[in-house]
Amino acid sequence: MKISIERGTLLKAVAQAQSVVERRNTIPILANVLIEAEGDQVQFRATDLDIEVVDKAPAQVERAGATTVAATTLHEIVRKLPDGALVTLNADSAAGRLTVEAGRSNFSLATLPREDFPVMASSEYQSNFSANAAVLRRLFDKSKFAISTEETRYYLNGVYMHVSDGEDGKVLRCVATDGHRLARIDADLPAGVADMPGVIVPRKTVGELRKLLDDDEMDIAVSVSETKIRFATPDIVLTSKVIDGTFPDYTRVIPMGNTRRLEVDATEFAQAVDRVATVSSERSRAVKLQLEEDRLILSVNAPDSGAAEEELAVAYGDERLEIGFNAKYLLEIASQVDRENAVFMFNSSGDPTLMREGNDQSAVYVVMPMRV
Amino acid sequence: MPAFCRDCLTIQANQPRCTNCGSPRMKAHDELFDLSVAHMDCDAFYASVEKRDNPELAAKPVIIGGGKRGVVSTACYVARIRGVRSAMPMFQALKLCPDAVVIKPRMSAYAEVSRQIRAMMEELTPAIEPLSLDEAFMDLSGTRKLHGAPPAVMLARLVKRMKDELGVTGSIGLSHNKFLAKVASDLDKPRGFSVIGKAETADFLFDKPVRLIWGIGPAAQESLDRAGIRTFSDLLRWDRRDLGARFGQMGDRLWHLARGEDRRRVSANSPMKSISNETTFFEDTGNADILDGHLWRMAEKVADRAKAKSLAGRVVTLKLKRANHATLTRRQSLRDATQMADTIYRVARALMDQLGDQGPYRLLGCGISDLVPEAQADLSGDLLDPGAQQRAKAERATDAIREKFGSDAILKGRALR
After folding, report:
1. CA of B336: which chain A residue's CA is closest?
2. Same domain for B324 and B402?
3. Is residue B266 part of a domain?
4. A284 band by pLDDT with thresholds 50, 70 and 90
5. Could you list the residue range(s) of the whole structural domain that residue B237 is in?
6. With an 8 Å Cβ cutoff, are A150 and B336 in contact?
7. Which residues neighbour B323 within 8 Å (Cβ) at sequence distance 6 or greater?
8. Confidence of residue B270 (pLDDT cuts 50, 70, 90)
9. Which of A16, A349, B328, B405 has minimal CB crowding within 10 Å?
10. Alpha-carbon separation of residue B299 from B70, B278, B319, B414 (angstroms)
């Protein structure tokens, strides 16, 4: 194999590959990216056995062929080459080497045979639909902060994407929770989704997917089966196993009956929470909210390090209420609000609290209070 | 050379026998009256207490340990002559020494003697760091004027009092830091008094194996072996940075220890790092119900101790030992620290379920670590487990009942498995 490719194009493809390969792994080939050249394009394939990403790029192919080489090393080299350079990759299968040439730089890298590279088995997809990149971006961006990292509840280590009943008919819904907070984000149902099985998309896949969603105009082809999900743009195909588990029944967790309503400017609220939380030395960083008519007092009292208090003008007309939260959780949900005021719906100081943006029911957050 | 008699405690010139009482137990060393960091280790402590309380046992081999399945926790010196060692499986110990008297540990009796020893140590110095019931570090720096005698004499007086008043013997290691004091106390057991002075530190360590270092277990030993480090002289050849790069934090410590340096202070209140409990089964089992019962009882014991100390843990650990003695440990960090048996049990149970069926097992244990004060624990509930708050309330109520009517007053069905 011998190809010449523009440095920027190569960097983009190799960057995607190296973020998929597992940093620490015991199987050498899994650290490699498979490079296949044919016609006038080259294809980069990387996998950690759970996720596979295939990236196509235009290139001058002098000699078709394929090889595999360490993804992180190749990425580091290409990253350090000057912008605009033309890079030549030349595989010598007899010597087991790949030479990388750009200008006066010359590298020779060890390769492993392409036959050893594991290719993810293709599967039958039950549901195929097309979704706008901006829609998918909103669904995952607004839910991913709530993904759990707890390994014992592995079925929470991803975003549950499924079809559900919204206010006005069926919606495409993403839910994530770690037991302390929960995000439920809805989008209009794209055509062809109706028979999609509900799947839990793993955290790492959500991160990799994000790189495909920067272009608002782009349509993403989504394919879903019980065990796999695939996202495809004309250049990149991301295939991932989904988490084999049952997502818990989240509907009973969402406190739709809460009646005490607080409306507050989300930015002001977040800044105030951030300020008062500064004095807290504990890792849990509890912030106390004291609510009375049109007044919210945020306070932190950390006996070892200090105390802080800040008052905000808010819209609140219910009985007095004192309730505590983890400052980080409050900041995370408040930062999801970008257009209107944040509306909090409380019940008591021991019950889950609901937050949404204005009256928008398409993005709902739940956060568990803590003892203060 | 400074010297004194370990029986009548008089300071005198060094000679084979004491000029005062005629005892041969003289101690002499160039730095004897300058060193002040000591380690006191009781001799076969549990067995000594048993022999004291039952003089008939005096000449018999005595083994303290649990049941036929357990391991030897302490063997008296008579049993040790026959090859019995602590941590040896009981069946093996009984093979070596079939006429041994096996006694189940009476922890409360040992704790009582330990308290009495502690009171005696407190008369010497406030800087005491107990490592267990029967051993402790003491720093006697600057006490010479107060006591009117150098630390060495006061330490000899301590072990003499322990023997005269409590009927247990101990060995003293005296040196210029904790590491060497601990090594020294082990050199001349029982009723030993060993000194490692600054001048001979390097020579003393030179050909000693690195496993002498307290805290170097089989795993660390193996990684040191791979690096070709067996003795302190091997360690001395290593550059400080290389050791750090290869062994991390331990590397820097090793570099200092190789030079006989140990800056750790004898600290009276070294904070507790973890609370755990384990049990060896009467017979190996892979039965999920039986394991579940054991797990609950262990979780409850851990929770009881955490509550008694007003502590909670952010990490739950599960430990299982398979029939072939291979140990499996798994840990899970929690968002919210806990001291509740219910939470510890549930997390440990999930860890056990993840292990799958690797039994039969011979031992099960669980514990909590990364400890915080209880005021920072169990602060928030779990959205997906609304019953947790109810169960926590039930557990607090159970605790109150047991406080009032005894620990057997109320039990979970699962505890009877």
Report:
1. A284
2. yes
3. no
4. low
5. 213-255
6. no
7. B284, B359, B360, B361, B362
8. low
9. B405
10. 21, 10, 12, 12
